Amino acid sequence: MKLNYKYSSVLKSYVIGWFVASIIWLLVSNTNKGKITFIETSYANELIIFLVTWLLQAFVYGFLQIIINKFVKNRVPFFKLQIYSLLLQLITAIFIVISVFVIFKSANILEEGTDILTFLNDLDGLWVVFVFALIVNFTINTVDYIDLVLGKGNLLKMIKGTFYAPREDEKIFMFLDLRSSTTYAEKLGHVLYSKLIQDCFDDLAVVNAYEAEIYQYVGDESVLTWSPKDGLKNNNCIRAFFAFKDAIHKRASYYMDTYGVLPEFKAGLNTGVVMVAEVGKLKREIAYHGDTINTAARLEGECNRLKAEMVISEHLKNALKLDSDFSAQFEDEIILKGKNVALKVYSVERIS
Question: 277 near 287, Cβ under 8 Å?
Answer without folding.
Answer: yes
